[in-house]
Structure formats: structure tokens, C-alpha cells
Amino acid sequence: MRVRIAVPASVANLGPGFDILAMALQLQNDIRAEQRPGPLTIDAGHDAPLELNDPERNLVTIAYAQSCAALGVPVEGVHFTCVHRIPIGRGMGSSAAAALAGTLVATALHQAPWDEDDVLERVAKLEGHRDNAAAALLGGLAICAPGAAAVQLAVSDELRAVLFIPDLPFKTTESRQVVPAAFSRADAIFNASRCALLVRALAVGDHASLRVAMQDRWHQDARFALMTGAREIVDAANDTGASGAALAGAGPSVIALTPLNPEPIVVAMAAAAASAGVPGQTMILAPRNYGTRVDVSP
User: Fold this and answer.
1) Pick the CATH number of 2-153 from 3.30.230.10, 3.40.630.30, 3.40.50.10490, 3.20.20.370
2) Is 140 exposed, middle or buried (0-12, 13-18, 19+ CB in 10 A)?
């Protein structure tokens, strides 16, 4: 039996939605798994770090092995082949995509009786980012409320995400360590109100409201202090006409949203990065209103 998983990139937080909101984007990793005699093996692709060819160090095969253990089925007898397009360690959901792919291969090959919530729970326990995993699985804008099932809403097809992606990755664990564990009532109200405005703006296509809706008083300032040029890139995007801009997930990438011609925003973000001495690339992506695709063949 063969399984192909097409799992998209995702950007979480979008300003105020820390650990709550994430959006799927039209950039995907392709993971193929084939049952064959022998041990569990993986070919991570020619652009991947060499250590990812070790099934004990690649999150795709780690997730697969843990899911097999939960199902009580053998781990060996499968070969994985990966095409990685989502940048690793840049705030675009690469680890959630990997863990989700491995879990879904296990569900497909072994006919696991798991629904969407079961899959997300397994991925969150392994990788820690239920918001990214939900966006990658469901597509669109995913909303992850603690104690409730993740839900999705479609995003306007005219919207574009402009990303500046630094060449150097940043560890999410380091970025999370600086986020305050508590903040004032005023800041809590500020962020809750912005989350409400953000969901409404994306639901009804009121993109002019995104500038205010993507404001944040919880995690971004602390992270900006760690990431050279990130604040300046966000400001450059807003100053050039982006509807709104924020750190992409935990950073170090920056995302700007616009329904208009994205090219001036691309130029401005790249110029701000160059002025700050931050090498990287820009990327324009459409939102993806459908989630991971799973194809199974004999």
C-alpha cells in the first residue's frame, strides 16, 4: 500500500491570536510512504539536513512510530520519501506539518479509528502547536479554543500573504521562553478585542480592519527584542500599504496581509531587512482554504 500526504504551511498568531489562530497557506510538503519489507526508513530529500534521513530524528517518522505504538501495530516495513518546501524553523509550521504527516500516514496505512480531534490531540502532544496543526489539517483560518474542537473558516481568495523569510532559522523554544506568563487586565482586554476583530475581518473580507486587528500586547514586543530587523520589517509593510502585518508564528519570519498588489510591500520588506542586515527571501502566497490531502493506493 502507498500513501501520499500533501500538507500545507501555516502561520500562527497573526498578531493577537497567540496559540489560538493560524492560517493555512498555499505552500506544501509532499510525503510519500510505501509499505515494503525491512526497517522503517526515510529519504528526506536532497535539500534537507542530513540528520533528517535518520528516522529517529525526523519528526515525520517519529510521529509515525508513536502513532503505530498507540495503535499496537508494527513500526517497521515502511519507507518514506519527502519533498520539503516549507522552510524549517521560520515560523511557517514546518514541525506541525511534519508531525501531522507522520500521524496521518499511520491512520491511513493502519486504518486507525481516529477523527480530526484525535489526530490533532496526538500531534499537539508530540509537537506542541495545535493551532498550526489545525490550520494544516483543516485549511483556512483555524481557531483553537482550549477545551473545544478546532474550527475553520474560509479566507477571501483575493487576500495575499507576503512573507519575509530570514536565511537563519530561530528556535521556537527560545522564542517562547521570552513570552510573559501573565499580563494586565487592560492588555488582556486589548488582545481579546483584537482577536475578535481579526476573526470578523477575515470572515467578512473587511481587510481594511486588519491593521488594528493584528495589533498585539502580549508576545510580539518580547520577540522583536530577540530578532534583528523584525519590527522594522513589520513597520515597513504597514507603511507601504499592507492591510496588516505581524511576526509569522514565533518568528523570525514576518507576514503581511493585503488584497492589493503585493509587489510594493515585497520591495519595502526586503529593503527594511537589508537595512537591518538581515539576509533572506520574500514569498507571496495565497491562503489555502482546504487542508491536508491524503491519497491511498494499493
Assistant:
1) 3.30.230.10
2) buried
